[in-house]
Amino acid sequence: MRLKPGRPDLANYTKFFDVPAAGADAPLSVSWAGVTTLLVDDGSSALMTDGFFSRPGLAAVGLGQIAPSAPRIDGSLERLGVRRLEAVLPVHTHFDHAMDSAVVAQRTGARIVGGKSAVQVGIGGGLTEDRLVVATPGEPITLGDYQVTLVEAEHCPPDRFPGVITAPVTPPVRTSAYKCGEAWSTLVHHLPSDRRLLVIGSAGFVPGALAGHRAEVVYLGVGQLGIQPERYLVDYWAETVRAVGARRVVLIHWDDFFRPLTKPLRALPYAGDDLDVSMRVLTALANDDGIALHLPTLWERADPWS
Known about the structure:
alpha/beta, globular
């Protein structure tokens, strides 16, 4: 635990909240709903990463048991206008990513697509075998209008709950039940428009894993990135953004996920991260590479390809 008090002030980064909004005729949009929950939607077919909306408080996470909140999940899906999903794609299986995935899949008719740990979360949430897909790393899966490829990744250090989940997780449970499991870099290719998106849920990487893959846009997780050595940030950028040839980057997983989405967003405290460091280093790297760098606006339908 770091001793620096307080948290970064988001008012210092107002100019970065400028991802282009999606027009009525946009062939594809991305809506951010905190942490690494993203709705990718073309109007007829949609995917969602994570689907984490419950956001239990710090006391419950640290000392008690946690479980999905149906009112918070339903309210968030309504806010996003979600009725049906092709799939829910947990980027890994820590609670702040996968805890709500099974409920979201139940509500939307989706399948959970991920590793064996994600399957255990789905089983614990009452999903049947036909709604659970274990991905083969690097092998594309067709899901509605999309081709999705899950590439092996790593969790940003430190991983407080490492390991895989080997038995069904049936809430309420202790936070430690949600082990990291398999971590993914998620590549989404929208077939009708030929647009490509990369989602990095945790600020970790496997050197060379994304070589040969392409994506115009990266939604880049920065949770815990600001407490890493600066060399790590440089390598992370190279192994993700540069590796896929992206021209626009949107930073995610910087918000305080112990705070409900009904309250104004705030950054994670300095005790666990330092968004100021991440913004300083990544802004310089983006400027050097001529890449547009943004922060997302909650709930907004964005068109990061425009």
